[in-house]
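Morning run. Coffee first, then this:
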Amino acid sequence: MSLKDANIGEEYIVKDIETDDEELDAFLFSLGCYSGEPITVVSKLKGGCVVSIKDGRYTIDYELADAIKVQGIK
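And here it is:
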């Protein structure tokens, strides 16, 4: 499932980032958003969502959230 469909407040593990944009991939990596890392949706906004990655909170748009594939933690 994509991060866009994730529930608020639940922790997920990033499985994959589906983008051909190398700059975007490098940017997400610099935030700590890469395969195997935990990520949590803090809130959803009109044009995107606020996510918690490591010790930071970031606002990302829904197009980017749709490219981040996650799986739930059991």
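The chain has a mean pLDDT of 93. Good start to the day.
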